[in-house]
Automatic annotation (TrEMBL):
Gene3D superfamilies: Glutaredoxin. The keyword Oxidoreductase applies. This is Peroxiredoxin (Alkyl hydroperoxide reductase subunit C). GO terms for molecular function: peroxidase activity. It comes from the Bacteria. The active site is at C46. PROSITE patterns: THIOREDOXIN_2. SUPFAM superfamilies: Thioredoxin-like. Keywords: Antioxidant, Oxidoreductase, Peroxidase, Redox-active center.
């Protein structure tokens, strides 16, 4: 079941592309967190979506909000992809135990072992205040992400 608006966001602690452990509860202590689940590094739709976020980094990473990407890819893939594309925000690996966080948010595609395109805005009380979920092959409308963070 996909986590809905008003739900308590499950805490997570996952390694980022630099092997640093990142926890949701630590990030929301200061600001909102926009969790962007994506199926696969190096795929065309995911690259386009995350590049749009990177191009507007000041809107998605500031004193009100922190964007964080999450996928079931291994750390080495995320590190290489972040270096190639120049992403300046955390990309978290939900690789092991495989998909545990994606499953908790209701966005793990069990048949492929990859996350769907789920996006969740979590406030400092660990409450989901906004969400958007798209299936495989469906690009999420980035304009809706812009609207969600502009309304903070």
């Amino acid at each position: 079941m996909i986590l809905g608006v008003g739900s308590r966001a499950p805490d997570l602690t996952l390694p980022d592309q630099h092997h640093d452990r990142v926890s949701l509860s630590g990030l929301v202590a200061d600001r909102h967190v926009l969790l962007v689940f994506f199926p696969a590094a190096f795929s065309s739709i995911c690259t386009g979506e995350l590049l749009e976020i990177q191009l507007n980094i000041d809107e998605f990473v500031n004193d009100k909000v922190q964007v964080v990407g999450v996928s079931c890819d291994p750390l080495d893939a995320l590190r290489a992809w972040a270096a190639l594309e120049g992403y300046r925000f955390p990309l978290l690996s939900d690789f092991w135990p495989h998909g545990e966080v994606s499953r908790a948010y209701g966005v793990l595609n069990e048949s492929t072992g990859a996350a769907t395109r789920g996006t969740f805005l979590v406030d400092p009380t660990m409450t989901v205040t906004w969400s958007l979920v798209h299936g495989p092959g469906e690009e999420r409308p980035i304009g809706l992400l812009h609207e969600a963070v502009r309304d903070l």
